[in-house]
Structures are given as C-alpha cells and as structure tokens.
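Priority: low. Protein: Pseudouridine synthase. Input follows.
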Amino acid sequence: MSYQGSWSRRGEWLELIPGKVIRESDDRETATMTWLLNVVGMPEKLLRRLKHEKGIQWNGDKLRLAIFPSRPIGINSIWQELKVLYEDDFCLVIHKPAGMMIHPDGRAGEVTLDHIVAAHFESMGDNVAVRHIHRLDQHTSGPVLYAKNEWAQLNLDEDMRAKQIERKYVAFVEGKVDSSLTVIDLPIGKDRHHAQRRRVSPTGQSAITHVRVEERYKGSSLIKLELDTGRTHQIRVHLSHLGHPLLGDTLYGGSSSHIRRQALHGEQLCFSHPFTGDFIEINDDWPKDMVDLRLLLRAEVK
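Result:
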C-alpha cells in the first residue's frame, strides 16, 4: 500500500488532502481511519497510537498526522564525514566504509555508523531516533538503510521480513567459479567450535544466495550476488563451504595477500519507499581497494 496524492510536511505534522468523500462522510472518523489504512497505507500499529494520542486532526480540508515527533536520538553523536546516497523525510541511505561497525558492541572508544548518523541528524536539525533497517558485516562496505520515523520503520521492517528489500553485492573469491553455480541453497547455523564463525549445518536456518560469474582471473573470480535471506556471514559461509572463500576473508580461509579485508561490497540497494511506494534504486560505487584489486587481478592474467 502506498500514497500517491499530494502531501506536505509542517514541522512535526504530515498534511494530506483526502477529498470531499472522506471529509463530508456521515461518519468521518471511521471513513478517515479506513482511508488511512487502506488507501494511504499507514501501519495499523501507528494508526492506533496516533488515534489514542490525538495525533490525527482535521484543519479545514487538510488531514494532519503527527508522524514527525521530536524523539531522543538514543546514541551519542560523533562527527565524521559520511557519504549520503539518498535522503528525504522518511529514509536515509548511507555508505558504510569497510572496517566500521553498524552499531556499538560495548567496546570503549569505538565509532560506529549509528554514531555518525546521529551527528548527521543533529546537524540537519532532525530530532529523530537512529534506526537502521539492516546490517552489514564490519569489513563489508556498501549502503545501509535508516528509517527516520515510525511510519518508515514499521513498513521497512515488514518489507525486510517479506524479503522485498533487494541487496546486491559484488565479491572477489578464490578459484575459478563455474558458470553453472547460480544458486546456493544451504542452511546456516552457529559453529560450536568457534564463537565468531557460522557454518553450513543441516539444523541451521534456511539461507539462499544467488550467484552470477562476471570475470575469471588467474586463480580467482569476480562474482555478483543477491540474497533471498540475510543470515549472519551468509555470503562468506556459502562461498567458503563451496571452496571459494572471499579474498581477504581470513576467518573463512581466504588469502590476505591481495587485500586486507574481505573483498565484499554492497553495490546496490532497492526498496519501495515506505510512504509513496515509489521504487528506489541506490547504487554505491566500489571503494578504492576493490577497484585496485580488480586492476591487479586483471594484470596478473596478462
């Protein structure tokens, strides 16, 4: 469900013009609630809360919804330069560099993407909670999606559960991957012998990775990947299990002779806008170490 009509933001309020049929209904409250749920696509949980808190109001022919309230950011802000790939009143997409965590894990002095996003919100005058919708491994680069209000968070979380947010990756792996490898459908579970690792396990959670071979080099390959599921270390585990660990991924058997981190980058993120329903396609350029690695591997073939 999505809203295609005109709208505007006025501070903490979203203003819509539902039209005469809703405005002049004999039971305007019921008609309004039905319209918000079935036409506009407001999450039912948010609708109930706003109704309870008197956050749904009429002002002449305009319907006002209090969906941009001031909220504690919820995390200390730390200023660093960041690359904004997309931003509006509902969503933010940020490039995460390799080596950075998404959120704190308790280590003193750490700087995470959430800390930097908090500083970005403060600099923009946005008093909104920091809510990332999905995660990337510490040493994977690529785009990360954030929700800027509860409407966006509820709808984007549901889209994640329904596997409607597309994440496309590029990776350099050891060995020459055969073109016949197009889908890896192997369950993933914890490795009881190593706390940080995951492994293919018949009792693990379902995990599906789509693979397309792009280039082959002397002893490695460039592949593109798409996920149906988002298990911890999914790409790394699947490829290592098949004998093609990521270059630089020493945790799963990859060589670090060409690159000092796992050679994995999220190059595209696609999702439906949580309010308008518009298809949003975000491309994230390869970082320099991945570009340099490709040049190096191509040169070795010559």
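The chain has two domains: 7-65, 84-301. The first strand starts at residue 7 and ends at 10.
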